[in-house]
Amino acid sequence: MPSPETGEQRAGPPETTAPSGGSWTFLSNHAHVLLCLADDPDQTLPAIARRVGITTRGVQLVLADLIAGGYVERTKVGRRNHYRVNPDGHLRHPMEAHHRVADLITALGASRSD
């Protein structure tokens, strides 16, 4: 279904059924984008958008937050971007602030699903 804001095609969530039948997830889009970049630092924004299930514009906004927060660095390589995840960044919520980004990546393991 096209997004009313951008007219982009919005990718749906993966074909899974939650036990409760709900549509919520345990992780935010920020965590999903971070895990995508940890899995493949050379992905394009549309590829990330498809995996996460948000628009390309949504990925841009999340990336801006992650870059501003020091969790991701972006380097231009020719016409493409390369992303480097900062594994030493601490998670933002007070309940998880004692954990680093590396802990999240290790615990959840980045895995390609393209």
UniProtKB/TrEMBL annotation:
Q: Which domain of life is it from?
A: Bacteria
Q: Which InterPro entries match?
A: WH-like_DNA-bd_sf, WH_DNA-bd_sf
Q: Which Gene3D superfamilies match?
A: Winged helix-like DNA-binding domain superfamily/Winged helix DNA-binding domain (1.10.10.10)
UniProt region (Disordered), positions on chain = 1-23
Q: What is this protein called?
A: Helix-turn-helix transcriptional regulator
Provide the species name.
Answer: Actinokineospora soli
